[in-house]
What does this fold into?
Amino acid sequence: MQIATTFRHMEPSDALKSYAEEKLERVRKYIDEPVVAQVFMTVEKIRHAAEVTITAKGITIKASEETNDMYSAVDAVVDKIERQLRRYKERIKEHKPATDTRERQIRKSVVEAASLETRREPVVIRTKTFSIKPMSVEEAVMQMDLLHKDFLVFTDAATDNINVIYRRKDGDYGLIEPSAG
It folds into this structure.
């Protein structure tokens, strides 16, 4: 497991870093290699926050916790990650996903809001390219829930089309899929 630790508004501590690495070893049993974990520890006055992002083969999971002690924040965030991974693993066992290795590269761009308001040409602020693997609609919903996102762009494993799943205001999900004509 590859772990990167970042300290914000606090002195770097080898003890805290090794404590977080030791705790993150518990999640290894739930996911396949390669695993990349990013740990962010932040202190603001009396608020101690720990945030963890784990990226593994096909999934990304994020969690954060705040307490008044950094060690307990690390414990709480690792517990949360472990619960999410356990739930994800159970859903995968129930679902039996397609074993498809096709991936597409997609590109996400963020446009400056001021350019839309003044009717001038939009300015792209940030562009990000990443791979998306084919998955079923059920897998896309699970991935969106794990990432705590309101929508997810994915390739439908059955049709090979790019679709969008999104969370509706009533709590249900919507699916946008391209039409054939």
